[in-house]
Amino acid sequence: MVLDNNKLVMKIDKITGTLVIIILVLVVCLFILTNNGTSDLDPYAKQKQKIDSLTVCINALEKTQLKYDSTIAIYRDILSLMDSQIDSTKNKIKKIQNDYGKKIKVISGVSHDELSDFFTERYK
């Protein structure tokens, strides 16, 4: 019976080895399937993270753009005010040029004696 026991032990060892191999194959398959499921989620999670970071960047750029827009509006108002001041100054200059142009014409028509009399009277 000793031989039969050895054969029985060998058969049990073969069955146990086969079961261990089957269990290992199942564990490896389960591990691969689990990793495939998480690897499908990982790219999505990475893409979501990229989208979130881009959203943060876009929001920051929009805030900066709003600041620049308000600064531009202020500069437009200042330029408009300066344009009106320039127009006013140009009108004053034209008026002064016209007034002095008329006076120059009057002075041009005055004789030398009349000019001498004018300055003599003025600086007495």
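(ticket continues) Second input and output from the same batch:
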Amino acid sequence: MLGKVWHPSDSAAEYLGLTEIDLSSLREHGLLKPGIHWISSPFGQKKPWNPEALYNIIMCKKIIDKFGPKEKYEKYAA
């Protein structure tokens, strides 16, 4: 069940038409909210101080579509 909605950054970025850096930036600057748009991976972590994020691609797509083209939401992630 987890794999149907929650995806690691590489596949989420590909699905959303972003780079992993863009996706991370949107998360770090608060456009993508924890528990709604992303969660820390429940699987083993290589770096516990920097856990891998899993993204809810459906919820991420909604917020990205709301802000339209990349140029519009970049100002929120700057």
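Agent notes: The domain at 2-77 is CATH 1.10.1660.60 (Multidrug-efflux Transporter Regulator; Chain: A; Domain 2). Residues 5 and 75 are 27 Å apart (CA to CA). Closing as not reproducible unless the customer responds.
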